[in-house]
Amino acid sequence: MNNKRDYLDKENPIPLYYQLKQLIKEKIETGELKPGDLLPSERELKDKYEISRPTIRQALKELVHEGLLKREKGRGTFVAEPKINYGFIQKFTTFYDDMEKQGIHTETKVLQMKLKKAPQLIARKLNIDKGEKIIFLYRVRYINKEPIVSVMNNIPYKLCPELIEEDLENKSLYKTMSEKYDITPYKADITLEPVLAEEHDVELLEVKKGSPIHYMENITYDKNDRIIDYFESRFRGDKGQVKVKVFSD
């Protein structure tokens, strides 16, 4: 960490912890600090930048919270692996299919798959009657043995009754629906919201309560404007990010 920009401006009104945070972040983004690199100790950072340890800890804490750094007990603070791009959100594809296209192998654990009666909220999302049968599918997707996202799908049973018999471990739900039941997703209404991890996230996604979560609601339609699925996904904020391209009119 020794280039011409490697300093903090004590005359700048921007807090010193934030300056240090941005400096380290820049070094990670430019590749000066690479995944697996060990950061200097708090004492070294204190001597180098002439700032207090609480200031250093605040900067490192936020970078760990954002998933850019990771702490290993007894070893120190290291640069984390790059975040996964949850870019599939801006394209009409699924997490599973997008990861496979990127060459990232995923594993799936089906927590629950059952028939149930649609409660009022789900029925409204699916545009069906309350109490109508739906297929409820609850899964967790893993990358490198780490849980990344939990997904709860709600599919009208009348569309594909045989789907309840499918083994959806390590399979694409939508590809299965398209290839086997001629139900092809065409468009979706998506809502994306930052939220904090709750108790069930702690258990399923192995995060601390209050950690950042990307929460997504998705209503999927076929070409006939028929709703074929409503699902909710909860993605680990420390493991991935959403990148979006925008264009002027």
Which characteristics define this entry?
two-stranded antiparallel sheet, 2 domains, six-stranded antiparallel beta sheet, alpha+beta, Arc Repressor Mutant, subunit A, Chorismate lyase, 7 helices, 249 residues
Word description of this protein:
With 249 residues, the protein is an alpha+beta fold. It folds into 2 domains: 16-79, Orthogonal Bundle (Arc Repressor Mutant, subunit A); 84-241, Chorismate lyase-like (Chorismate lyase, 3-Layer(aba) Sandwich), CATH 3.40.1410.10. It has 7 helices and 10 strands. The protein has helices spanning 16-30, 42-49, 53-65, 95-101, 120-126, 173-181, 199-205, and strands at residues 69-72, 76-79, 84-85, 106-117, 133-143, 146-156, 187-196, 212-221, 227-236, 240-241. The strands form 3 sheets. It has a 6-stranded antiparallel beta sheet. A hairpin with a 5-residue loop joins strand 8 and strand 9. The longest helix has 15 residues, at 16-30. The chain is elongated, with a radius of gyration of 22 Å. The model has no long low-confidence stretch (mean pLDDT 87).
